[in-house]
Design brief:
- By secondary structure, the protein is mainly α.
- The chain has one domain: 434 Repressor (Amino-terminal Domain) (Orthogonal Bundle), CATH 1.10.260.
- It is 68% helix and 0% strand.
- It is built from six helices and no strands.
- Helix 3 crosses helix 5.
């Protein structure tokens, strides 16, 4: 028997890519500013370009999972905290 068990919430499939990008950017900026970290310092500590941090925060670019892990480490939080906050905002 070959059936698909779909446990994903319906909202995941109706989201637009730009909504996801902009929400991630909002969460990233929120977490960065709450810690008093500049874009430049975050970029340096996460080993990414400062302009990439700016573009992510503005919803222009989206990170890979590797970059999310690096950003989270630089922020001193778990990557799952970034994703969980995004999910709450997108609902």
């Amino acid at each position: 028997m070959n059936h698909v068990c779909n446990k994903w919430p319906d909202f995941v499939f109706t989201m637009r890519t730009d909504q996801i990008r902009s929400t991630f950017g909002q969460v990233l900026r929120e977490q960065r500013t709450a810690r008093g970290i500049s874009q430049e310092d975050l970029a340096l500590n996460a080993d990414v370009d400062r302009t990439f941090v700016s573009q992510m925060e503005r919803g222009i670019r989206q990170p890979t999972i590797t970059t999310i892990m690096k950003l989270a480490e630089a922020l001193g939080i778990q990557a799952s905290a970034l994703v969980a906050r995004m999910e709450r905002l997108l609902r």
